[in-house]
Amino acid sequence: MAEIWAKALEDLWGIKAHLSRLDGEYDLNYRAVTAEGSAFIVKVMRADCDPAMVDLQVAALGHVAQHTPEIPMPRVVTALDGADTLVVRDTDGKDRLVWVQTALPGGCYAAFKPHSDTLIHALGRQTGRLAATLESFEHDALARDFKWNLTRSDWIADQLDVIANPDRRAMLEQICGAFAAIKSALGQLAVQAVHNDLNDYNILVDLDGSVPVVSGLIDLGDMCAAPRICDLAIAAAYVVLDHPAPERAVTALIAGYHAENPLTGVEIDMVWPLLRMRLAKSVVNSTLMARETPDDPYVTISQAPAWRFLEQPEIEPELLRCRLRSACGLPVDDAAARTAAWLAKARGSFADVIGVSLYDAPMGALSVEASATPRNPFDLAHAEAAAIGSETFGPDDIWLGYYAEPRLIYTAPVFRQGKWKASDRRTVHLGVDVFAAAGTDVHAPMAGTVAFTENRTGELDYGGMVILQHTTPDGDVFHTLYGHLDPDSCAGLRVGQTIDKGAVFARLGAADCNGGWVPHLHFQLALSLAGMGTDWPGVANPDEMALWGAICPNPAALLNLEDAHVAHTPTDKAHVREMRARHFGGNLKLSYSDPVMMLRGWKHHLFDEWGRPYLDAYNNVPHVGHAHPRIQAVVADQLLRMNSNTRYLHPAQAAFADKLLSKLPPELSVCWFVNSGSEANELTLRLARAATGGRAMITPDHGYHGNTTGAIDLSAYKFNAPGGIGQPDWVELVDIPDDYRGAFRRDDPKRGLRFAAQVDAALDRMGGKGHKLAGFIAETFPSVGGQIIPPPGYLQGVYERIRAAGGVCIADEVQTGLGRLGSHYFAFQAQDVLPDMVVLGKPIGNGHPIGVVVSTPEIAAAFARGPEFFSTFGGSTLSCRVGKTVLDIVDNEGLMQNAETMGRRLMDGLRDLAGQFPLIGDVRGMGLFVGVELVRDRTSRAPATQATSYILNRMREERILMGREGPDDNILKIRPPLTIDAEGIDMVLDRLGAVLAETGSAP
Predict the structure, then answer these.
(1) What is the spatial distance between Cα 569 and Cα 547, in angstroms, rounded to a whole number?
(2) What parts of the chain have a pLDDT lower than 70?
(3) Looking at the DSSP assignment, which residues form a beta bridge with residue 108?
(4) Residues near 442 by beta carbon (within 8 Å), at least 6 away in sequence
(5) Cα–chain center distance at 608
(6) What contacts 862, CB < 8 A, 6 or more positions away?
(7) 8 A C-beta contact, residue 349 and residue 358
(8) What does each C-alpha distance from 539 to 366, 556, 613 come to in angstroms?
(9) Closest alpha carbon to 485 in 448, 438, 545, 449
């Protein structure tokens, strides 16, 4: 039948196109694509279609196009005679109303992955814009009476007998009851034109680069007149389906809508019952349809997502209501707003909570930025908890801890909100701490009654805890919580007992009874108990502070203090970024589209300014892990003594050299200590020229050896980059020995020798220019070139040719040395060669600036015939002690063996992912030096650069730091600290697998 409509399209609209059938419940829909690539939607209405309903849609689309053209909705394409719709007779002789729209880019929301908060917020904004635009749209056909008008959903109450499962039927009865409870208020709201069916198939999503955007809102076939909140609730009903965090999803949608079309508190409070009613209506209707068409499995299959949502553990509706209100900047309820205003006005009139004024009490910072407690951010030690603040304050001093301060001291499992160490965790303090001596009396700031009391004996819990209920002069109720009390002091309290203003009702507990903490009072205010009861969170997820900050605001007024005095002021990441842009060079780049600001680290995890943990699968500099205690101790100890240089004798220099040389072949026995890998590679250039009398160098393409002038001259990655200086006359390039996409591939058993033979041509070019060879330098396993593992025999063939031509061979082991490869301490050992010089850099200092060159006595003697060599900080006593400690840790903690074990686990998992996702063209690596090459297709091996960028940024959103390398930036680089454990490897594989399944990762 498509042929007749293709002919009508060409004859009546002047559009010659190929038609393909689209899904449609009642009408025929076709996608029409012209030879030039223009796309249209041809809509052939059912024979009995009411023309007024088509006119309604045409008029509404025209209204949107005229008033808010930026809303992504189709445009009506007029026929050659100027008509919006035409009647065309079908093959059965029936007249069909036909109209044409422009096609929009993207695919349906249901099929797009992931449904991120950012995307859902954008959908909310577009939904809000559409509702605001349709508010002024009028049409007679809007006053239709049909079952999908959400305000008239109570018809399903008489049809619930079709649901055979009694538990499901009871649930639907409860949903109908909740709808009945709001129906009167719903009827008081203003009515306007609404889309009425923003389901997950009527929303189109596309990628703008790697950013998902709402590219279309389509299908106005269910338009009607209803309160605008109905439209939003319908969209919310589909947004939550199969979403891993439905509360977060609906919150993002409502916040986006509110940003464009502000909602009232009354409307927001209706979202949850309306959302559930829409889904209830959907399952009842589909069950009724299944009776009529029992052989159609789609009817019941389509119910599955709705039932999965409705039958999951119920979301606490009161807490969700507060969450939605707070996301829109509204008070959780009217009473909360009145209470907050009264507390602010009454500030200064309350009794002192520990019997003395806190006006002059100093503040003590425990934030991620200000405090190094705990040493291990995943395990606060008992001694640390009992000594918080002791470096500044004495046991009898009174001092205060900040409200809304992000802290890493909350390490118990209850604070984690996911299966991984790098998952969400609660870090932000929701009260004010009052530190004072154990036994200090606690007074009621105002009259109240005991609402709850308990002795929480768990480790790092509250110990004794009391909640008081208070009433304002206007009759509004609020509560205060007092934690870390001596449980004996409040054991006699009874629920309902009256506590007078200023009365002593408890004492501060010591560490042996207050949960294990330094004596202090956790003082917290709650304007509502919605969803909390007596189990208040004293600490919040930083991404949920809109909610918890609204329920438990700053209690400073009750302490007779100004809010700002006790409120934590976070470092503004945007300001830091602005200052960086102002004061640093423009070619100093940041990682990720949304850069991270890291303030703490531990082993293979990093923490941002809010205490969010990240798994570090990228940084090879902290070779033995971030913030290693032994390195910190060595640094502190040596700086307490002195720090000099190699002009003076010190046993640390010889000890470092001896430890390092024990890992190297005996031929390599002379060390030079410098400040960095860049300086080390620069030094090797001088050594090579002194030893050979030559000047020219051969090096693989796309290599990187540092940022000094000489190192840049050796680094094609830099000198061939846009704006680079270009290839120096005395440098010759050979191919990276890449046997995946290079000139010689893995099906060639002699590929290593063939790559090595390219040195012959380089020597010929060099000789033709009249240059004499000094040497060959390469990252032993090219990292910037794409985490390349050279084929067997490669370096053997290269070194033979270089030495035969009178040159020396330099192994840059900055990326691969010191046990990273697991099976070998250095990469040159894996190639079964002996270099003339070995370069080590940043990992040997674990972040402390150290570089090392190790060479032979013969080369050292040749260099010594020149001017004196001296590096002011190279070989400093501090650096030597740090370097040796790093080498000792690798041995003592079995990190080389861990690299082999974890590397094998990682490689096995990555190969499994490669079997699932064609985007992965190659998995290569040794130990914890791993590359994953992404390609658009495995035959051409065309680099998937855009998908790689998408995955890199998505992994950062999943709290995993990775890098990318290669000439085409299409290789994921995984090289974590050697401390990474099985959980870390499994998180990388789990999250990478999820991201690879997303739309943005499609080849």
Answers:
(1) 18
(2) 296-301
(3) 204
(4) 353, 354, 482, 485, 504, 505, 506, 507, 508, 521
(5) 12
(6) 687, 690, 691
(7) no
(8) 13, 17, 16
(9) 438
Assign residue 891 a region (left: φ > 0; alpha: ψ between -120 and 50; beta: otherwise).
alpha
Q: What is the pLDDT of residues 693-732, one digit of tens each?
A: 999 999 999 999 999 999 999 999 999 999 999 999 999 9
User: Residue 338 and residue 276: Cα distance in Å, rounded?
Assistant: 31
Of 330, 315, 317, 194, nearest in space to 262 by CA: 330
Can you tell me the distance from the alpha carbon of 185 to that of 226, in angstroms, rounded to the nearest whole number? 13
Helix (H) or strand (E) holding 741: none
Half-sphere exposure of 735 (CA within 13 A, CB side): 22
Q: What is the pLDDT of residue 299?
A: 63
Q: Where are the beta strands (DSSP E) in 211-362?
A: 211-217, 224-226
In 863-986 the beta strands, taken as DSSP E runs, fall at: 920-926, 929-934, 960-961, 963-965, 971-974
Beta bridge partners of 837: 810, 855
Task: Compute the distance between CA of residue 607 and CA of residue 604 in angstroms, rounded to an integer.
Answer: 10
Check if the beta carbon of residue 724 is closer than 8 Å to that of residue 716.
Answer: no
Q: Give 8-11's long-range contacts (Cβ < 8 A, gap of 24+).
A: 8/86, 8/88, 8/98, 9/40, 9/42, 9/100
Quick one: tokens of 817? 């040395």
CB distance 705 to 812 below 8 Å = yes
* DSSP codes of every residue in 818-858: TTTTSS-SSHHHHTT---SEEEE-GGGGBTB--EEEEE-HH
E strand or H helix at 696, and its extent? strand 696-700
Contacts of residue 317, defined as CB under 8 A and 6 or more positions apart, other chains included, come to: 272, 273
SS3 130: helix
591, 573 contact by CB (below 8 A): no
**In which element (H, E) is residue 504 found?**
strand 504-507
- Identify the pLDDT of residue 134: 98
What is the SS3 assignment for 309-344? HHHCCCCCHHHHHHHHHHHCCCCCCHHHHHHHHHHH
CA dihedral 75, 77, 83, 89 (to 10 degrees): -120
Token digits of residue 285: 């209707």
Contact 816, 822 (CB under 8 A): no
The answer to whether 162 and 287 are in contact (CB under 8 A) is yes
For residue 304, give the 3-state DSSP assignment.
Answer: helix
Angle, CA of 603, 607 and 610, to the nearest 5°: 160
Extract the runs of DSSP E, i.e. beta strands, from 935-995: 960-961, 963-965, 971-974
Largest CA distance in the chain: 105
3-state secondary structure of 283: helix
3-state class (DSSP) for residue 40:
strand
Q: Which residues contact 772 (CB under 8 A, 6 or more apart)?
A: 692, 693, 694, 695, 696, 806
Burial pattern 748-761, b for ≥16 Cβ within 10 A else e, equals eeebbbbbbebbee
In a 13 Å sphere around the CA of 56, the CA atoms on its Cβ side amount to: 23
Q: At what angle do helices 265-292 and 246-260 cross, to 10 degrees?
A: 120
Report the number of secondary-structure helices (H) and strands (E) in the chain: 29, 38
Measured between alpha carbons, how far is 647 from 665 in angstroms, rounded to an integer?
Answer: 27
* Residue 514, both tokens: 């207050």
d(C-alpha 441, C-alpha 504), whole Å: 6
Task: Answer whether 230's CB lies under 8 Å from 99's CB.
Answer: no
Size (the chain), residues: 1003
Residues 461, 284: Cα–Cα separation, whole Å: 47
Which residues are registered as beta bridge partners of 41? Answer: 31, 101
Contact 318, 531 (CB under 8 A): yes
